[in-house]
Specification:
alpha/beta, Rossmann fold, 6-stranded parallel beta sheet, 19 helices, about 40% helix, binds uridine-5'-diphosphate-xylopyranose
Length: about 475
């Protein structure tokens, strides 16, 4: 589609009047965000709701390529590619002082600003052909949906991609809560819900200034008349922090619709996976393998990679290690991808005890496999939800953003993991890696967090069964938007 085609004539949009509701998804173009709205699209489509997924051609292609199917028969999701002017896609900088993926900010800004015009034209055309148009947008994409509130038959929901724990703290802070100051209503709420011993990191430490500014700009532009807020979590995991959000922001309706990721990988889906690591996992003992992966926004220095390699080798445990650099703004531009070197003779040293994966790993399938017994993770929210729904305990090594706060939730509140290192650590040593792997996989403390994780996994999976708590909340949302 070229720029002249941005205004979509009414007659190219199908007439959807037959359906009570049509949903349009507006994701932020980063894997951890695209992924969640695509999962939500799949879940909603099982209710026979038409879904439109909008973005640039590159990011729509990325989302589809890495899509984890939920195994249900879906109403097909329609992807709409919009042209935007070229934007810079620098490679990640592993030597940067802040570990936040600042190299992605130009792609976020470009999408939020330049998708606005074609998106509005598309929604204008669609809103006149439907009974109700529901727009679900990433909370960091508010610029793109300005003016949508005034369209007929249309309501907007903002989607917040992180834990209720992190959102609750952020909401308290925005309403004036300050750590260490003992007055005001927000302090009373904080003290009621957050255990005293929690060591919560400030927002200013977790994000670079330029990204904090982007968050503030996008939050200022959240539609005042927004119909509600959506979260990828559920009461059985984070009930008390959802209560905090409801108390701090009573002006909105809040929907905890998670988990979005598939909670059961059926045997037919497993056999679909062609990745060689699945056949390797089939050969291992139950709960004997630690899966090591740091999502799509982590770039590590060569020295750090070497320390991990040695630590894993010395731990004497089986492992799958996904050794990939952070995504850049265009994941199909592979010319500048760094291939990190492992210590000489590493393959020989680990033999059949470990696998190093350099391509896209089937993470949800790996975590669902009976041979996987632990997960070393940066605590990105997708990874947290995937480990909790599969009942796999974590060794937490947060890098930036919401991850330090997710680590507190996972290790101190829910007790489904152990901490590898203080997140500000410049270099995590091989010794620390070795110790935490042993602690998680073969110590009494590890056995206890594994029991907790398995218990929580069972509770979450039950909650999405017919008449389970999460299933009821999801059905209530579907009934609400289809009213
Ligand atoms: C980002 C932020 O860092 C995170 O804190 C925020 O909550 C969401 O967006 P990211 O760093 O990529 O995400 O981590 P994570 O949230 O864990 O998302 C990564 C996703 O990619 C997971 O769903 C994971 O299953 C998937 N993945 C990653 C694979 O399936 N295979 C891979 O090889 C790598």
């Amino acid at each position: 589609m070229n720029n002249q085609n941005h205004i979509i004539p009414c007659n190219v949009v199908k007439n959807y009047n037959y359906f009570r509701v049509v949903v349009v998804m507006v994701p932020l173009p980063a894997q951890g965000h695209l992924n969640q709205l695509l999962h939500l699209s799949q879940l909603l489509s099982t209710f026979d709701i038409p879904i439109h997924f909008v973005g640039t051609a590159t990011h729509n292609r990325q989302a589809q390529l890495r899509r984890v199917h939920n195994g249900q028969t879906n109403h097909p999701i329609e992807f709409h590619d919009f042209d935007i002017p070229p934007f810079p896609c620098p490679p990640p900088n592993p030597a940067a002082t802040h570990k936040f993926p600042s190299h992605l900010i130009p792609s976020f800004t470009a999408a939020a600003v330049h998708l606005h015009r074609p998106l509005l034209a598309f929604l204008q055309a669609l809103s006149s052909k439907v009974k109700r148009l529901v727009v679900i947008h990433d909370s960091l994409m508010s610029s793109a949906i300005q003016g949508v509130d005034s369209l007929p038959n249309t309501e907007t929901y903002s989607f917040h991609t992180v834990s209720a724990f992190a959102i609750a703290l952020h909401s308290l802070e925005r309403k004036g809560f300050v750590y260490g100051r003992n007055d005001g209503e927000m302090t009373t709420i904080y003290e009621e819900y957050f255990p005293k011993e929690l060591n919560v990191v400030s927002m200013e430490e977790c994000f670079p200034t330029e990204f904090l500014e982007l968050i503030r700009t996008q939050f200022r532009q959240l539609p005042k008349m927004g119909a509600g807020k959506i979260y990828n979590t559920c009461k059985v995991i984070e009930g008390q922090f959802l209560d905090v959000i409801k108390r701090v922001e009573p002006e909105f309706r809040h929907w905890a619709l998670g988990p979005f990721n598939p909670v059961k990988i059926s045997s037919s889906m497993q056999s679909c996976s062609s990745h060689s690591c699945m056949a390797w996992l089939d050969q291992q003992e139950p709960r004997s393998v630690i899966y090591v992966s740091f999502g799509t926004t982590t770039a590590m220095k060569d020295q750090q990679i070497k320390e991990i390699a040695i630590g894993l080798a010395r731990s004497d445990q089986k492992f799958i290690w996904v050794l990939r650099d952070a995504d850049n703004g265009d994941v199909f531009n592979t010319s500048e991808i760094r291939k990190s070197k492992l210590p000489e003779g590493y393959d020989h040293l680990i033999g059949d005890r470990g696998l190093v994966i350099r391509d896209w790993a089937p993470q949800v399938e790996i975590l669902s496999h009976w041979a996987t017994g632990g997960f070393m993770t940066h605590c990105g929210w997708n990874s947290c939800m995937e480990s909790m729904t599969t009942g796999v305990p974590v060794a937490a090594w947060p890098m930036h953003s919401d991850q330090p706060r997710n680590t507190v939730l996972m290790t101190m509140v829910l007790r489904v993991g152990v901490v590898l290192e203080e997140w500000r650590q410049e270099l995590v040593t091989a010794h620390a890696v070795e110790e935490v792997v042993r602690k998680l996989m073969v110590s009494e403390e590890g056995a206890e967090v594994r029991r907790n994780a398995e218990r929580l996994g069972n509770i979450v999976r039950q909650s999405v069964e017919d008449d389970g708590e999460s299933r009821r909340e999801f059905e209530a949302f579907v009934a609400h938007i289809s009213r």
